[in-house]
Description:
mainly alpha; 81% helix; globular
Amino acid sequence: MRKLVLLALVGLGAQLVDGSLGMAYGVTSTTLLLAIGTNPAAASATVHLAEIGTTLVSGVAHWRFGNVDWKVVLKIGVPGAVGAFAGATFLSNLSTSTAAPLMSVILLALGVYILTRFTVAGLPKDQLRKPLRKRFLSPLGLVAGFVDSTGGGGWGPVGTPAILASGRLEPRKTIGSIDTSEFLVAVAASLGFILGIGGEGVQATWVIALLVGGIIAAPIAAWLVRLLPPRVLGSAVGGVIVLTNVRTLLRSDWIDAPDPVRYAVYVAVYAVWAAAVTYSIRQHRAESTTARPTEARDLIPTGAGARR
Length: 308
């Protein structure tokens, strides 16, 4: 029972971050399932089955709040579904001993990317409202879908920063469109896992626990997306993912590091993570402080009307 409650809380927290940041539900949930010894394919299958419900509710909520660009959803979602199905089939045919470290490498890379991207660069704001071309979105969706099903997450970490980096779609619509299109990816990945492993290792109660937590958080996250600082959330989530998967790799047969080495690496990761979050908070406050005087100046009358 305690494990189910924990899974529900993880689903709630992961969806709260995912819905407001456009990433991290799959990566966070899969990381936890791997940490408690779940088979990699079964972990990814469990998360994607839960995501069918959470992404549906999240998509509806984002749509109601005006956070969805339906052209982007279709252009990236359909090829994303193709990539997700292929990735699920690929992962289902790997042995557990091979898949576990491989998945951790993928998750670690995504965590490092999230941590670095949001800590150093924040969110780009130029070139807004320029059209996003199909030749850009289709390959992006294909790659993101494949990474998502093989890594147990990655649709958001790959898709959201790429679209944000283009500067052509405002952050809230980027996040809403990625979250909504993820429904197609979750359905395709789940079908791939069902054909590949059937129900082996997938526990319905775990799926339901993750689903319940995610459904509760989805509408809240869609509302919070306009309020929470994505830069700080990105640094925080990236650090969690990096730390957890570094731990998995250091304990794997690939490395099997002795205790002193592991603890030294953990301390280093904690230090970098704390510094990244602190830097992101300071940068967010600095940006907010510099924005307010500018907005105030814009409200001061100028010209003949101001001299009267």
